[in-house]
Design brief:
mainly alpha, disordered N terminus, globular, about 80% helix, 19 helices
Length: about 425
């Protein structure tokens, strides 16, 4: 019997379940021990999220639950709102790892975007992107506005501010999950036309989401923030942000190709340096990190023969980073707030699911896609994860008056996916 097979036996799973329980008990007492707050909280949280997240994900495999759900669950249980194994300050400290996680998500998204894949289904992808983006964006925004009585933080908003918040929810609804899609495909090892369609759509839609989100945030700012206004200078700044991000991403992609060709070693170190250091540079220049890294990954894949090597390096690091990223997002989830929002979270999730299904049905029929894509093409477009949470965090920073509860609502709907 192979080691992989033996790792999946009921006996092994029982041992892992006991180990997980003991680990949580030890973490519980360690977090409450005298002097526990004097240091080492971040290290304790990292160990808890990594080991706990990995064990829970493996235990949930027989139920065909995506691994990221297990990571989120561990974060929720360990966080300041349930067992309090990790306090709020420590969770905030760990959000610095988000920069690396988002860089890896964008790099992987760009590197998975292969020209051959796009050429084969260009007509289908174009129709699906236009319909999915338009229908889901408008429909989700409209339902959000109509559901105002169920959303406490919108009750005191002026109509224009509510309209702005609804637009932000619309762009959150449009996001897909490259990390969840890649993770599920890696788990299931699925192949075929449906897999190709899903992968191509999810990866290409990233570009649309990044550009559209920058535009929507620029439009919403004067609707919700006192003193802000929408001017030509604002659109000029937006154009600078997008074009500058593409230009810098192109440069970074070419530099990465040269590095892979002439050096080709210590890729993990390079990715860490880019994830942390280069992201800070981009923030200083007021450029869009997701778009920059997406373009760079795309060029490495399509202008060189090092695309697979680059992807493998990303996957090696992502297997660890994503556990902490999603567990931290789960720890951020305010359960008291969720108890208030659970009805509207279900409503918004169901609305997005219905809109995605409807847009997929129309798009695949117009594109004359194969029967399996017509029937199941929507299924791979429902998941949300890293990009949604990242965009929700960006909205929280841009709109401090209502960004935090909007982010909690976004995480709640992600958990339902």
């Amino acid at each position: 019997m192979s080691s992989t097979a033996s790792a999946r036996t009921p006996r092994t799973r029982a041992v892992r379940a006991v180990a997980l329980l003991l680990f949580f008990v030890l973490a519980y007492f360690a977090s409450r021990a005298h002097g526990a707050g004097s240091g080492g909280e971040v290290l304790l949280a990292l160990g808890l999220f990594l080991l706990g997240g990995t064990l829970v994900a493996e235990l949930l495999e027989p139920l065909r639950v995506p691994h990221l759900t297990g990571y989120l669950a561990v974060g929720v249980l360990s966080g300041p709102h349930v067992l309090h194994l990790v306090d709020h300050t420590t969770v905030e400290s760990m959000t610095k790892l988000n920069a690396l996680a988002l860089a890896l998500i964008a790099f992987a998204g760009g590197a998975e975007l292969k020209l051959d894949l796009l050429r084969k289904g260009l007509k289908s992808l174009t129709i699906a992107t236009l319909l999915q983006t338009g229908v889901v964006f408008v429909g989700a925004a409209a339902v959000f506005a109509l559901a105002r009585p169920l959303i406490p933080f919108t009750l005191g908003m002026a109509p224009r501010a509510l309209f702005g918040a609804a637009l932000l929810w619309g762009i959150l609804a449009v996001t897909r999950s490259p990390s969840a899609t890649l993770g599920v495909l890696a788990q299931t090892r699925a192949k075929g036309p449906l897999t190709t369609y899903t992968l191509a759509f999810v990866m290409s839609s990233d570009v649309v989401v990044v550009v559209l989100s920058a535009l929507v945030i620029a439009v919403v700012r004067p609707l919700t923030l006192p003193g802000a206004s929408l001017t030509m200078a604002g659109f000029s700044a937006l154009g600078h942000e997008l074009l500058g991000s593409v230009a810098l991403g192109t440069t970074l992609g070419l530099v990465m190709i040269a590095y892979l060709k002439f050096v080709g070693r210590q890729l993990l170190v390079v990715l860490v340096a880019l994830g942390f250091g280069f992201t800070e540079v981009l923030s200083y220049l007021r450029l869009e990190p997701l778009l920059t890294f997406l373009v760079a990954g795309f060029l490495v894949q399509n202008l060189s023969s090092y695309g697979e090597k680059f992807l493998h390096a990303i996957e090696d690091m992502a297997s660890v980073v994503f556990v902490v990223f999603f567990a931290t997002a789960g720890a951020h989830l305010d359960l008291a707030l969720l108890r208030t929002y659970w009805v509207v979270a279900l409503l918004l999730f169901a609305t997005r699911l219905a809109l995605t299904w409807g847009a997929s049905a129309v798009a695949t029929r117009l594109a004359k896609d194969p029967p399996e894509i017509r029937r199941w093409g929507f299924a791979g477009l429902v998941s949300q994860a890293g990009v949604t949470i990242a965009l929700a965090a960006a909205i929280e920073r841009a709109f401090p008056t209502f960004g935090a509860p909007l982010r909690s609502l976004a995480i709640a709907t992600v958990a339902l996916c």
